[in-house]
Amino acid sequence: MIHSLRLGYLTLATDRLENMVDFYTKVIGLSITSVEKDGSTYLSTGIDHHNLILQPSSEEKGLVNYGLQIENKHSLTELTEQLKEMGISAQLVKKPSVGIEEYIVVKDNEGKPVHLFQHMHTHTHNKGMTGIGVNPNKLGHLAQWVKDPQQTVDFYENALDFRVSDWLKDFFVFMRCNQDHHSLNFIKTDGDKSSNRLHHFAFELRDWGHMKDALDFLGKHKTPVIWGPLRHGIGHNLAAYIPDPDGNMVELFTELDIMNEELGYFEPKAWHKEYPQKPKVWTDEALATSPWGIKPPHGMLE
Questions:
Q1: Which pick of 69, 82, 86, 222 has the fewest CB atoms within 10 Å?
Q2: pTM, two decimal places
Q3: Main-chain phi, psi angles of 286, to 5 degrees
């Protein structure tokens, strides 16, 4: 089994590259670390060389792939063979992009490419936060539409050492690979949404004050809040959801539950309704979505 450490980056295809770059630099506050000949633009929240890649495309839009940083106790060559022995399609790629010297490309149970890397270059041009726009701490998590959440859970548990934090009934699962409540989420779809798969992705903010300042900034720059601010039941994070120029949903969050693996429960908080708060299946959809009673917009959970 390969031990995953965190969500490192994701790639979005867009036919509005200039607008998307403007949004993620001037509004979200990411910094550009590299621009390739084809226009592909690498952006960082701070220390990493990149956390978001914007890739020009006249056809495909939305999520292209994403990268997970994995433990480096064994070489990627050894891990590639290990994955193949498990019956998983795996290919070692040398110098695949700027910022990363090599990674393994695997396809999950539904065929989505996932890049497994051990090392990423640091962002040397402008270390630290930009101080521009929303200015998030880090890329936090990625949520995707899938046809079979349980099969997806089996893949990520058995191949990449993810653990289930919570389920919403049997259609929405939250998975962690570190102390954060979730790094990957999977939500069931019976339609064609899984062809793109992107439900939303999220940037972490420092605290509630940062959230307030970010929403004030977004209001001044005519970026609407589609859902929130609210507190989720699952994960208990404060959250607000906004669209980017392509309509991709971006979550801004803070106060996400932290798991104490040794004790088997999440660090206690005043807003928890159970003590201790342990991983479980939530059956009350309204409570799981938002104890504050702020209902999701149409299409967010279906």
A1: 222
A2: 0.95
A3: -65, -45
